[in-house]
Structures
1.
Amino acid sequence: MDETPRNADVSCDCRDDPGVSLERFFILSVAPRATSEMVLYYTPRGAETTGHVVYVGADKHENEHLIQWGLPHDVWFHVDKLSSAHVYLRMSPGQTMDDITPEELEDCAQLVKANSIAGNKQNDLYVVYTPWENLRKRGDMDVGQVAFKNEKAEAVRRTKVKTRINDIVNRLNKTKVERFPDLQAEREAYDEGVRRAKKEAYRVAERERLEEERAREADREARDYKHMMVEDSMKSNKEMAKKYASVEEAEDDFM
């Protein structure tokens, strides 16, 4: 299902609202706004095992927050060369695009297509995906518009979507949850956790190094002490040989 990009359009104009329904428009218009932006969360297949979650910006302004405060183990999905929603797959720390399951890839691709005004009507289109860290936002870009830092095939992949599969889209929509997360706080908490983990790893490594150094020093001291005892013993035997004519004479003197 995966295909590498050929002359991929790496500047994705995502300014259109991804297919807002009248019901959702009403919610966005009259619901009291929190200090953070609304994010839509979905449950992909296999989440009970992987712990992965899919999340989507409700509009172009929320997409800006997602671009700014993503996590290193997030993967970004978008319809290639068309306006669409920004769909992210949040995996576990340390995982890469190679850890995306075929089911997750299909779910994300279908969700992106369904949330593209133009893409939802087309067949045989491509969806591009890349790590969040590969997204590049320049100051002269419009709201919701991004490019890629690395345009090579290993960093930006494509998958073909032949047609919309309603069963997948409907299943995902049933899992949708609207939340107002503090994305900046989440990112800062993640960064703090990474710093603590690095400090703890350094402390453990330093403690092991010191223990190994103490063990080596103790071993050196033990060898030096043994050598010293041998020399002292040899010296004492020589002195006794000079002082006493025989062992019996030495024993008589000791007694």
2.
Amino acid sequence: MKRILLTSALIGLGLPAVEAATTLDVDFTATVLATTCTITIVQDGGPVVTGSNGEYSLTIPDVGLDKVVTGDVAAQANFKLKASDCSNGYSKIFTTLTGASVSGKLIVNEASSGATGVGMGIKRRDTADSTFFTPNNTDKFEWSTGEKADGVPLTVALRETTAGAGRTGAFQAKATFNFTYE
């Protein structure tokens, strides 16, 4: 959480009112007590991550629906959230996730005339699908001390939104990571 201290000097405080005054000049100084971090998404044993300035893409190679249905590793990719240029003024980083269209813990396909009944879930690396983050901007996780230094290892996985409902086609979805600091 950014904290900003505003100090203002009120001109004319305690002076008699001036009837002819038509403007009020206020001068203030803002002091930033702590800046935040620059967060990037980096490749980490998975497909190449492209992009910069807060807009990144990660492409999972074409995968069969059978791999999506069974939760095979071929239907997922690893990456890291990496913090840099952080201020010493914080002790914690929290992350939440949002998506435009959601089914339970999965962000669903946004591609027109593409795959149906398929969504992507994001979880910490090497954890069960039951640990997918709920993309509702309230399910938050805290970065450990090691993760603040080395990055948070995550996995994005394609899964059926409802068992037996998956249909093949193009898939595209957008996840937004939101960060707060303490």
